[in-house]
Amino acid sequence: MDAEYLIVGAGSGGSALAYRLALAGRRVLVIEHGGSDAGPFIQMPGALSYPMNMPVYDWGFRSEPEPALGGRSLATPRGKVIGGSSSINGMVYVRGHARDFDTWAEMGADGWSYADVLPYFRRMEHWHGAGDGGDADWRGKDGPLHVTRGPRSNPLFRDFIEAGRQAGYETTADYNGEKQEGFGPMEATIWQGRRWSAANAYLRPALKTGNCRLIRALARRVVIEDGRAVGVEVERRGRIETLRAGAEVILSASSINTPKLLMLSGIGPAAHLAEHGVTVVADRPGVGANLQDHLEIYMQYAATHPITLFRYWNLWGKAMVGAQWLATGGGLGASNQFESCAFIRSAPGIDYPDIQYHFLPIAVRYDGRAAAEGHGFQVHVGPMRSKSRGTVTLRSADPKAPPSIRFNYMSHPDDWAEFRRCVRLTREIFAQPAMAGHVRHEIQPGAAVETDEQIDAFIRDHAESAYHPCGTARMGRAGDRMAVVDPECRVIGVEALRVADSSIFPQVTNGNLNAPSIMVGEKAADHILGRGMLAPANVQPWINPNWQVAQR
Q1: Which of 188, 305, 341, 402 is the most buried (most CB within 10 A)?
Q2: What pLDDT was estimated at residue 134?
């Protein structure tokens, strides 16, 4: 079972990496603890609320009690299936803003500015939005990852965009192109009515090359000899064995499991490792630190007319939607129903968007629980760049024990001010003529929630993770004590070991993280292969010319 490259994790970064290495003729072995992604719960986009709540597909992690959220423990889903979290996520496709990656470079991730990463976004994309007014010059045309847009046939999708325009905000034909700021159509990793996960886009084509193999096993630790990663100890079919790597080991196990594996392998904060009896190989205090996420609330509205998806939110309705999808691959089941969105700035003096909206034509939670009032709709809204930071640490030295996850949500005072602005700006948008006629009343937070104290209490009781954890093995220069990997994704202090997943993000990017996680796998492959990077792109993003003095 030996190979040149061992990749731990068949998720977004790992699958992209396996494909590029295999395509280059390298022998690759992918180690994945999860199983098959077959079946409608994963492949049908409209069933997205199911897989992340099913233990067969999800690791089932939860945060430690969050002090600023009233001691609540929040769900932290991570995919335990081929495709990783791309097989259980909401399929929303967001690259991030150009300024995000320029910030990475400023923080020590040399070679990861927007000019550097845009060519990799282009290489990975097969974009289908050209007929909808998008920025074709900024997009990829023949990559493995299909990126599409929903039909926006429900009038609520277009009326939400129009309400944003009426409120004085920009509109954008392509938030993944030159201009992220504004209201516009949302993109998704859906193709021909199916979830187009990293497994479908990358892993299956990699396996077809004959250079890539996949095994189902639990990775226990990286085997390090004389400062060099030589293999991975795994548990498979009840037996513990060591798989050897001829060239390198790459961890792509998620921002939760990657730092856990590093620490179990002796790479991490020395004192913490000693507490659990783990022999220290490399004292890297940044392992498990810098944990970031997007927190959001659902602002829900009761509808005046029965035009929402609530009519299908019953056993018979779901059966009809599922039957149509199984028979034709189309209908409501072929969409994730996130078909319009917005990125706005919360205040003057902020140069690029720091609030994201997902619009949904039903009032329902990710866990599938619908609002009790029947027909309604909602936006998911939250700040993009929280200053709060958390940690992932070992609970014990047992590889089967889940790690301790502490996000420290809302621990920075700026978070509260930003969230209050989210609530008040959203109410203003829904009061515009395009949406006001659809609103019977506000379900939550509710019209009685007005003061700072009342809004804060609502946030404390109802804010949920957007499921975008990252940053726990961040990239930086070798002299940075808190950096875990260098700009070529190499673990500092250990040879032949790299990380290629959202762990390496120095700072969370704007929006959903699947796209930048795949980009990391794409770019890491070129570093590993030792070939030249794709030529930087000479483009400049649109920045509102009045950002210093105007909020919109």
Answers
A1: 341
A2: 82
